[in-house]
């Protein structure tokens, strides 16, 4: 298992997928260290230790490379969410970027609506995202939402839903600024610690649950996803809307 994991790490390394490669190197090194402990043959132990040392040196090099990219504002990580994959609730996806210094968040998504043919629950998804921000560990004070108006009769439901979220957030000391634009197409989320996350489907990458009493209805980690791509960037200065 250790050899397989390290082999995968090397493949990802060669493909310049450094973030994923680092995780595989670290897992592979841990597995190989367990093998060393269980091996009685001294010659084998020596060979394993040499390999582990090489992998550790490479992992350290990747770590430094990633850190430099962050410093230079060139960091880019891509996560591919497969069709019907589970385990991609908002906490899992965003947690590592929501450090304690995050106090301001920007959400650009044209489809934060009550009911839309392509986005059944996007208002609820946005509410779920806000709940995650309120829970911390970050100390969010301001959320900026840029979206587009729903068409026709859905507009009044959309506005009343957003106003309800706005009022509710106020009870937690969080200000929600809402703006509408008819020309918005991009979907991205930015935090004032420099992280920017672009999701192909915005916050609405979850499939409709099979029923109101089916597993995954309440817990998004258990909800199957639509296929989408998540791109994570880091720049020293998050652009303002």
Write the layout of secondary structure elements.
Blueprint: H1 2-14, H2 18-38, H3 42-72, E1 75-81, H4 90-94, E2 104-108, H5 122-135, E3 142-147, H6 154-170, E4 175-180, E5 188-191, E6 195-199, E7 228-234
Parallel strand pairs: 2-3, 3-4
Antiparallel strand pairs: 1-7, 2-5, 5-6, 6-7
CATH topology of the largest domain: Endonuclease, Chain A
What's the Cα radius of gyration?
22 Å
Judged by helices, strands and strand pairing, the structural class is alpha/beta
Distance between the termini: 47 Å
Shape: elongated
Instruction: Give the helices and strands as they follow along the chain.
Output: HHHEHEHEHEEEE
**Helix tally?**
6
Largest sheet: 7 strands, mixed
Protein architecture, described:
42% of the residues lie in helices and 17% in strands. The protein has helices at residues 2-14, 18-38, 42-72, 90-94, 122-135, 154-170; strands spanning 75-81, 104-108, 142-147, 175-180, 188-191, 195-199, 228-234. It is of the alpha/beta class and 241 residues long. Residues 116-120 and 237-241 have low confidence and may be disordered. α2 packs antiparallel against α3 (42-72).
Task: Please sum up the structure shown.
The chain is built from six helices and seven strands; from the N terminus they run αααβαβαβαββββ. The protein has 241 residues and is of the alpha/beta class.
Keywords:
Endonuclease, Chain A; 17% strand; MIT_dom; MITD1 protein; 2 domains; alpha/beta; 241 residues; MITD1_C; disordered C terminus; single chain; MIT_dom_sf; Methane Monooxygenase Hydroxylase, Chain G, domain 1; 7-stranded mixed beta sheet
């Amino acid at each position: 298992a250790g050899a397989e994991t390290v082999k995968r790490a090397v493949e990802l390394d060669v493909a310049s997928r450094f973030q994923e490669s680092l995780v595989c190197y670290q897992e592979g090194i841990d597995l190989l260290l367990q093998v060393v402990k269980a091996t009685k043959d001294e010659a084998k132990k020596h060979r394993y230790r040499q390999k582990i040392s090489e992998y550790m040196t490479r992992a350290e090099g990747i770590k430094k490379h990633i850190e430099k990219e962050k410093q230079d504002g060139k960091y880019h990580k891509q996560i591919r969410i497969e069709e019907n994959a589970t385990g991609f609730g908002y906490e899992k996806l965003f947690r590592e970027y929501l450090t304690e210094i995050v106090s301001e968040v920007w959400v650009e998504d044209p489809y934060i609506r009550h009911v839309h043919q392509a986005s059944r629950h996007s208002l609820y998804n946005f509410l779920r995202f806000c709940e995650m921000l309120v829970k911390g560990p970050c100390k969010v004070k301001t959320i900026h939402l840029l979206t587009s108006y729903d068409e026709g009769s859905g507009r009044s439901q959309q506005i009343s839903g957003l106003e309800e979220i706005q009022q509710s957030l106020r009870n937690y000391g969080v200000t929600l600024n809402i703006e509408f634009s008819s020309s918005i197409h991009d979907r991205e989320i930015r935090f004032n610690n420099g992280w920017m996350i672009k999701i192909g489907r915005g916050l609405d990458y979850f499939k409709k649950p099979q029923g109101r009493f089916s597993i995954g209805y309440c817990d998004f980690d258990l909800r199957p996803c639509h296929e989408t791509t998540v791109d994570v960037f880091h720049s020293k200065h998050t652009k303002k809307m």
